Amino acid sequence: MKILADENMPYVHDLFGDWAEIVTCPGREMTPEQLIDIDVLLVRSITRVDAALLAKANRLRFVGTATIGCDHIDTSLLTERGIAFSRAPGCNKVGVGDYVLAALLKVGEHKQWSLADKTIAVVGVGNTGLQVVARAQALGMRVWRCDPFKAQRDPTAFVELAQALTADIVSFHVPITTQGPYPTWHLLDKAAIDCLHPEQVLINACRGEVWDNKALLARQQRGAPLTLVMDVWENEPQVLAPLVPYTLIATPHIAGYSLEGKARGTYALYEALASHYQLELKHSLAQLLPRADFTQVTVNTALTQSCIARLVGLVYDIEKDDARFRAALTAPDFFDRLRKHYPERRELASLQLIGASIDDTAQTLGFKI
Ligand SMILES: NC(=O)C1=CN([C@@H]2O[C@H](COP(=O)(O)OP(=O)(O)OC[C@H]3O[C@@H](n4cnc5c(N)ncnc54)[C@H](O)[C@@H]3O)[C@@H](O)[C@H]2O)C=CC1
Ligand SMILES: O=C(O)C(=O)[C@H](O)COP(=O)(O)O
């Protein structure tokens, strides 16, 4: 068996090496020629798997993406051509939850807000959105859920988008869609942006095209700017550079980039391929991951907002990601470079908290207890 894989997919050789010859290359540069005689294609979100890429794929039987989103895959084409497809739902949802928690704490510090007095609206309440709901509740925040698909089953538990957009903080966790009853392309469009109040905070850790970036820039330049946390951008890897100075936190699509999340993504494809070809699994996910640098902390104080911020900072320092982004902004290929050389980041669950004040709240925030 011959596998072509994105070079930024960790653990490919450890997991698939017994079964196949493996070739890797940069995900954004895969060519139709590279797919000649390839049986299995393993990608991440930056490879467009479409008719053009598959034009010379004479032997392709399986395509897998080690990501949650699959908007980069022409799944109808794969079905038409009888090529099996697998993805990794939820693989990096914890990383996204950790990222948004770190962002909320930074917003709290910046605006001198007690987050427990604030309302957050979570738009899109699936795997990643639910991680944010849990962490925000653990911070004592009031949480509004907005998800018209889920609202069909339980309308009283959800708010409409119009109400969600009045919350102190609005965090977006939807897939990018252009069809269907509730498309998300420019869900936050010019009209919605122009209705927002300058005290409001917006977080985007899903897909850049969910916000109209140009309309947002125009709004920020008019004065009384919104507070923005942007992990994703329209037209990645290009970034609307003039928008960056108007953000509180700017990062290069790394919200889900925990080591655990990436490993889970590759492992999901390992399981799917084993099932497709009836192969025996020889490796466990736990074996793959190295020990975290530090694994236990004794907390001798109450779990206040500032204490939580210090604890989160021990594991994940979002400000460093933001600083690297701003420092690199003008360099060629900066976006992909930052992602390729992203430092190892562990999930909050790699750190166990002990102490009299540590209870379920710490676990809901993401830590191990
Ligand atoms: N920045 C990053 O590193 C990452 C970004 N993502 C992005 O986040 C997206 C969401 O991920 P998950 O939560 O795991 O997906 P999911 O499929 O579990 O949940 C998405 C939710 O959005 C809801 N939804 C769809 N259209 C909506 C609309 N118009 N308004 C409100 N809700 C709507 C769906 O009903 C669903 O409950 C992914 O599709 C991916 O594009 C995912 C992982 C990492
Ligand atoms: O899983 C998703 O969906 C994501 O957005 C990934 O975190 C993106 O990572 P790459 O595929 O771009 O490495």
UniProtKB/TrEMBL annotation:
BP-aspect Gene Ontology terms: 'de novo' pyridoxal 5'-phosphate biosynthetic process; pyridoxine biosynthetic process
Protein name stated in the entry: Erythronate-4-phosphate dehydrogenase
A single Gene Ontology CC term: cytosol
InterPro entries: D-isomer_DH_NAD-bd, Erythronate-4-P_DHase, Erythronate-4-P_DHase_dimer, NAD(P)-bd_dom_sf, PdxB_dimer_sf
Listed SUPFAM superfamilies: Formate/glycerate dehydrogenase catalytic domain-like (SSF52283), NAD(P)-binding Rossmann-fold domains (SSF51735)
This protein's encoding gene: pdxB
Record field: catalytic activity: 4-phospho-D-erythronate + NAD(+) = (R)-3-hydroxy-2-oxo-4-phosphooxybutanoate + NADH + H(+)
Enzyme class per UniProt: oxidoreductase
Compartment annotation: Cytoplasm
